[in-house]
Amino acid sequence: MQIAIDPYCAMATGDQVYSWIDEPSARAAAPVLRGRSVLSDLDLSRAEVDALVETALWLKIQRERAQPHPYLAGKTLGMLFQHPSTRTRNAFQAGMEQLGGHATFLGARDLQLTRGETLPDTAQILSRFVEGIAARFGAHDDLIVFMGGAS
């Protein structure tokens, strides 16, 4: 199987990725995502999805070459889960650590939702302290309500 990513950047053949010339174009596209909530790949344009995939492949190459890539140094991801998820939590934590950032976890017991704080209030407060939020809720409608308070 052969997948052409972008002729000037990389070519992937099986598990091998080679011929990387420059940083991915997603670094330039990243500010476009700032302040946006993404619930689905349908919330992104084709160019944004392509840029994110390109960046992911580039970061994978950097990691395989043991080259540091601390692009999220000094950044914090708030993880808010209504229900535990070992894989999701560890994937986000590992990703943040590998990129030089930090992830903080809030489970259902850490939240004030049972004491009258609303989902938008929680999102607004959490947004003040972190650069990004990864939220996992049982109901999609809760996620949409939460998203309304995030900035």
Order of helices and strands: EEEHHEHEHEH
CATH C-level class of the largest domain is Alpha Beta
Fraction of helical residues: 25-40%
User: Quaternary arrangement of the chains shown?
Assistant: single chain
Domains (count): 2
CATH homology superfamily of the largest domain: Aspartate/ornithine carbamoyltransferase
Shape: globular
The tally of strands reads 6
Output the number of helix runs: 5
How much strand?
15-25%
Query: Any idea of the CATH topology of the largest domain?
Result: Rossmann fold
**Mean pLDDT metric:** 76
Low-pLDDT residue spans: 1-21
Distance between the termini: 41 Å
Structural notes for this entry:
By secondary structure, this protein is α/β, with parallel strands linked by helices. It has 2 domains: 2-64, no CATH class; 76-147, Aspartate/ornithine carbamoyltransferase (Rossmann fold, 3-Layer(aba) Sandwich), CATH 3.40.50.1370. It has helices at 26-33, 46-64, 86-98, 119-127, 140-147, and strands at residues 2-6, 10-13, 16-18, 76-81, 102-106, 132-136. Helix 3 (86-98) links the parallel strand 4 (76-81) and strand 5 (102-106). It is globular and about 50 Å long.
